[in-house]
């Protein structure tokens, strides 16, 4: 028997959210490395980098909230 459509859709959406979270965390880590590497940035470039980092954190928080709201699988799968 196949997996029901709702379960398949749930797993695909969950996986896409997990992938998005991983991508955003990686981007935030890369920006933190750039900021801590000690390269001299102009004040405007530094403020733009900080604003972009804050935007990424907000997107990450919204994505994590979507994952939380997704909840458990609609129908537990039996093995």
Quick synopsis:
76% of the residues lie in helices and 0% in strands.
Question: What does it look like?
Answer:
The protein contains two helices and no strands. With 79 residues, it is mostly helical. The longest helix is centred in the N-terminal third of the chain and has 32 residues, at 5-36. The protein is elongated and about 55 Å long. The model has no long low-confidence stretch (mean pLDDT 85).
Which SSEs are present, and which pair or pack?
Layout: H1 5-36, H2 43-70
Helix pairs in contact: 1-2
- Which sheet architecture does the biggest sheet show? none
Integer count of domains: 1
Number of strands: 0
Rg calculated over all Cα atoms: 18 Å
First-last Cα distance: 12 Å
Q: Helix/strand/pairing class, anyone? A: mainly alpha
| H/E element order | HH
Helix content: over 70%
| Average pLDDT, all residues | 85
Return residue spans where pLDDT drops below 50 for at least 5 consecutive residues.
none
Amount of beta strand: under 5%
Q: Which term fits the overall shape? A: elongated
Number of helices: 2
Keywords:
79 residues, mainly alpha, 2 helices
């Amino acid at each position: 028997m196949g997996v029901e459509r709702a379960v398949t859709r749930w797993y695909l959406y969950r996986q896409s959210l997990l992938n998005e979270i991983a991508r955003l965390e990686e981007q935030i880590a890369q920006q933190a490395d750039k900021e801590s590497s000690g390269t001299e940035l102009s004040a405007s470039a530094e403020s733009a980098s900080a604003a972009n980092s804050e935007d990424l954190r907000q997107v990450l928080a919204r994505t994590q909230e979507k994952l939380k709201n997704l909840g458990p699988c609609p129908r537990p799968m039996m093995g």
